[in-house]
Amino acid sequence: MKIKRGICFVVAFLAIGFSCVGQQQSEKYTGKIERTYIAPQQIVWQSDDAEIINAERLLREGKHQASTVNTDLCLMKNSTKQASILLDFGKELHGGLEIVTGMWPGNKPVNVRIRFGESVSEAMAEITDTTSATNDHAIRDWNIKLPWCGKLEIGNTGFRFVRIDLIDNDIALHLREVNAISVMRDIPYLGSFRSNNERLNRIWETGAYTVHLNMQKYLWDGIKRDRLVWVGDMHPEVMTILSVFGANQVIPKSLDFIAEITPSDEWMNGISSYSMWWLLIQHQYYLNTGDLNYLKKHQNYIFELLSKLESKIDKNGKEMLDGNRFLDWPTSEDPIAIHAGLQSMMVMTFDAGKEMAKILGENEKAVHYQNTIKKLNKHTPELPKRKSPGALMVLAGLADAKTVNDELLTVDGVKDISTFYGYYVLNAMAKAGNYKDAMSFISEYWGAMLDLGATSFWEDFNMDWTINAGRIDELPKADKVDVHKKYGDYCYVGLRHSFCHGWASGPTAWLSQYVLGVNVLEPGCKKVNLNPHLGDLQWVRGTFPTPYGIIEIEHQKTADGKVKTTYKAPEGVEVVIVK
């Protein structure tokens, strides 16, 4: 049995979640982490053979206040079965739950069980070895007491669904309100993307929203788990933030945090590639913001870290990195793939190091890093059979883009891409000029998560999972595969799998760069070019944030197939149109 509010969720999601797209920062946005109350959108399920009266009352907007008027409440009472109800708040949220109660005889607290879930399946699950549902990183399964005629707030996790079970017998629980407490930064979506392809539009928006949820006190990988500053995860997240929100304080704060807890002679998060991602983020952040003082703040650390990386190159130019040798999970057991990726990342990192040395006036170091790149280029790994490291070889200039695109990246379509390194596969395809297939990959792979009911992008995804799959926003069916419970590997087995993971947001940044066409040429966005690639699109319009304000852009395909571009740029930004 489903009871819905009288509102179309898709419209509400776009209106509420993205009403600020393209707007300038203004007084109505505090920039701080704020709390917002959200009523349930629908009742997905309630137990049969238990007394549940007036459940639809919970779908109304509330006053967030108990009162002595004990009418028009939802009543739950156990009978032959336990009284239970499953609420859907319409979209992935970060935060907790507010419960406002009425009055019942005895004036004593009532025991209930509260379960949060990113899917219906998770909210309905027990914590057992077979389900892989957990309480690690964030508690999502609680036994608590609800006050008589009062209010209680509980939870701090990522969720969309909440199940409430009445534990006590012989007493009726009176519920006045059950509201989600959304906790996230109050910031405008300065960047935007719209085209005549609604599926691509929604993917752009969902990637932006996924990262927005993870912009808590620090930039997290996921809001359910791990809720940590994983630096590799940060790179696609930062690219999305710079395309959507501009220079937000969560980026330097998170970069500072990981540097403060990691001596320069150790690897960030214990992973050598993650220290390299930190350096690549530093360079990109400077390029978009022009914040020289921030780059100078980490000047010594940057050069110390580059020295450590250089010590891991043998005389033949081959990387010999130690620590955890990791790219992404699907390639984690393939040493040939890992070496190809790490060798490529070393070239990319020393190229960024060279540019940062020039910016910081360390010309001798810049020359030295250029020579280090030449040394690294003496060793070319064999082209792996995996798409992620193959893409990195293209981006590092260690392999021909068109050859890798034709012989590896486009073979078997979206098979063998991950939500994390899929971003770099898309970038490599763009370098080969294959924008049309890249957009098709985005629509097929990331769009498939939306087809299964996702409102944020997942830690991992495999197209094989779509075969006979049930939706995550519906009760599991016997004749359908429960995607959340059945699939997952490594650290994301079953219901432990994060369904809001910032590293999966790459298409948002990619669409802004390669379809809307914005490329930063000079620090602080003082000079950008517009180089759109519309593929089969007829038009695209959007905005891009700079330190000087927003660039407004529109591309229209004309009858002869050419693209007409119009734009409006703030003073201080030079725009070059690539023809």
TrEMBL record:
GO process terms (BP): carbohydrate metabolic process
Taxonomic superkingdom: Bacteria
Alpha-L-rhamnosidase C-terminal domain residues: 517-577
Domain Alpha-L-rhamnosidase six-hairpin glycosidase: 190-378
Xref: InterPro entries: 6-hairpin_glycosidase_sf (IPR008928), 6hp_glycosidase-like_sf (IPR012341), Bac_rhamnosid6H (IPR035396), Bac_rhamnosid_C (IPR035398)
Protein name: Alpha-L-rhamnosidase
